[in-house]
Design brief:
The protein is α+β, with helices and mostly antiparallel strands. It contains 14 helices and ten strands. Helix content is about 45%, strand content about 15%.
């Protein structure tokens, strides 16, 4: 066993023992909401939310959260990919929790909550029970059951009669996709990948409550929540301030650059093929193989996983999974006659993509424009080429 693993096991053991033996909290107990800012890697792009429970009289200072998972599960990658991975409630000593996010240069905002001692003990009892081995696991959902949504659900289930979540601060209801984009750069592979993998289901408008799938909106909601007529948040302070770092954006590594390159290559090569009365099969194989692979991945995420956000993904209209098979036929100097009809089908589905986009049935990545134009140009050339095959040869 490595030193790092042993360290985390000791931390978890300490956290569990620190509150498991405590029956009730004292009058010195404090409850607060912690909102952690985002980081550069995709798994940390949307931040984190947790509950801090501190009582110096009984010697506990523990942070409860949701969203933990077991990397050591032998089927981890399969379960993660298919949406079948069990996530769990976590408990960490406050000092180690804060230290980890300080090391990651992520901000931590603390909102002290105005709760009575009876309410604090009710919350403490709920969290202790929820942390039991038989209760801590749940089926994760990116939009509706994640580390952020769990927190308001906990408060709503415990304090239904006394706490009022006032949602009037949400003046405009955004779609889930718009909310996701708020924390992402448009010209990034993360944003392009999310727009490619997530379907039309995230283009529905989120209710004020559903905005809380993002930690920032949980923080805002708690600022607009009342406990027996009094503001729930009594004080807010920044525990860790993120240090400003100079971000270097390398344009040649961005999806916009490569979208432009693909379009230029297709336009130039297609023009040369037309002038020289030949067909460059390499570019055709590349386009069909790449769109086919993308189509297979999208179809897998839609039909073969439990992820709710990857359903109804009409990127499948232009990224046609059969293209992967057709790539072998397109390699031949004289492909089968049905290829021309298949190309018309591809163009029809690209047209449907544009229609779905215009009517906002699904919002696609703006970077997709370069790919769609490149595909249309090449497909039209191939239709003309196969029709005129006898003339050119």
């Amino acid at each position: 066993m490595g030193v790092k693993k042993l360290f985390f096991i000791l931390i978890f053991t300490f956290a569990a023992k620190s509150f498991a033996q405590v029956a009730e909290l004292s009058s010195l107990a404090k409850v607060s909401l912690l909102t952690i800012g985002n980081a550069d890697d995709l798994s940390s792009k949307f931040g984190h939310t947790a509950i801090r429970l501190k009582d110096p009289a009984v010697g506990i200072d523990v942070v409860f959260g949701y969203g933990g998972f077991n990397f050591r599960d032998p089927l981890f990658y399969y379960k993660f990919t298919t949406g079948k991975l069990d996530y769990s409630m976590t408990a960490h000593p406050y000092n180690s929790f804060i230290a980890s996010y300080r090391n990651e240069n992520r901000s931590v905002q603390e909102q002290h909550l105005n709760l009575s001692l009876a309410q604090k003990n009710k919350l403490f009892k709920f969290l202790k029970n929820n942390y039991l081995e038989e209760n801590r696991y749940y089926k994760y959902d990116f939009l509706f059951d994640n580390c952020a949504t769990k927190i308001p659900e906990v408060f709503n289930s415990i304090y239904k009669k006394s706490i009022n979540f006032d949602s009037t601060h949400i003046k405009k209801h955004s779609t889930f996709r718009q909310l996701i984009h708020e924390t992402l750069d448009t010209n990034s592979w993360a944003t392009f990948g999310i727009d490619l993998a997530l379907g039309a289901v995230i283009d529905k408008k989120a209710s004020a409550w559903q905005h809380q799938f993002l930690p920032f909106y949980v923080q805002r909601q708690f600022e607009n929540t009342f406990n027996d007529g009094h503001p729930l948040v009594s004080k807010s302070e920044q525990i860790v301030k993120k240090k400003p770092l100079l971000k270097k954006t390398i344009f040649v590594l961005s999806p916009l650059f490569w979208g432009i390159i693909i379009l230029i290559l297709v336009v130039v090569q297609t023009y040369l093929d037309h002038i020289n009365k030949k067909r460059s099969r390499g570019i055709d194989i590349g386009l069909f193989a790449l769109t086919g692979i993308a189509g297979v991945i999208i179809a897998f995420l839609w039909f073969a996983t439990d992820h709710s956000s990857t359903k109804a993904n009409f990127n499948l209209f232009w990224a046609m999974a059969p293209n992967l098979l057709v790539a072998f036929y397109i390699f031949k100097k004289q492909p089968p006659h049905w290829i021309s009809k298949y190309l018309w089908v591809l163009l029809f589905f690209i047209f449907l993509t544009v229609i779905f986009w215009c009517f906002k049935i699904q919002i696609f990545s703006p970077l997709l424009i370069f790919i769609l134009v490149a595909l249309c140009i090449r497909y039209l050339f191939l239709i003309h080429w196969f029709k005129s095959y006898q003339i050119y040869n």
